[in-house]
């Protein structure tokens, strides 16, 4: 919902001061099963915006502490990657590196990713704006304060289903 208030103009009602979107743009369903010291996972990823897209991933991750990698295979894109486990850089920042090959494009490459435990970007934003008018004798108010705008969205919903053998 884009309104005049989000374009820098003054809000005309309380409804223009907030925007809450409860429809997630990403839905992840992950199935996990431990088989002989290896976690086998099937990730089903559904993306709602900007276009509807679907991805499936098969993930193999050794659970022993000496193994520091995991293998990901995407059958739709014919992409295979080996990724390191998250390496702590600071208390809140992690680094992950990997190498992959795409069989459709016959391309091999590497990538890296910085992640944080503080949540994703754009979880919520509150913007405050205060301005003081200096031109006297005009119709502009001398003091104008916008108490703030709230933009919140539920960007990602993730469900992890783990199958364990009962003893």
UniProtKB/TrEMBL annotation:
<feature type="domain" description="DUF7781">
    <location>
        <begin position="135"/>
        <end position="163"/>
    </location>
</feature>
<protein>
    <recommendedName>
        <fullName>DUF7781 domain-containing protein</fullName>
    </recommendedName>
</protein>
<feature type="domain" description="DUF7781">
    <location>
        <begin position="13"/>
        <end position="134"/>
    </location>
</feature>
<dbReference type="Pfam" id="PF25003">
    <property type="entry name" value="DUF7781"/>
</dbReference>
<dbReference type="InterPro" id="IPR056683">
    <property type="entry name" value="DUF7781"/>
</dbReference>
């Amino acid at each position: 919902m884009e309104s005049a208030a989000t374009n820098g103009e003054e809000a005309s009602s309380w409804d223009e001061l907030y925007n809450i979107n409860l429809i997630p743009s990403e839905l992840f369903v992950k199935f996990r099963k431990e088989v002989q010291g290896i976690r086998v996972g099937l990730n089903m990823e559904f993306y709602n915006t900007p276009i509807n897209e679907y991805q499936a991933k098969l993930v193999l991750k050794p659970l022993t502490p000496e193994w520091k990698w995991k293998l990901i295979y995407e059958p739709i894109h014919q992409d295979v990657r080996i990724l390191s486990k998250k390496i702590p850089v600071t208390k809140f920042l992690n680094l992950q590196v990997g190498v992959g090959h795409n069989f459709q494009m016959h391309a091999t490459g590497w990538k890296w990713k910085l992640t944080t435990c503080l949540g994703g970007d754009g979880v919520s934003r509150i913007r405050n704006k205060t301005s003081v008018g200096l031109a006297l004798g005009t119709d502009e108010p001398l003091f104008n304060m916008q108490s703030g705008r709230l933009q919140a969205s539920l960007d990602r919903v993730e469900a992890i289903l783990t199958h364990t053998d009962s003893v």
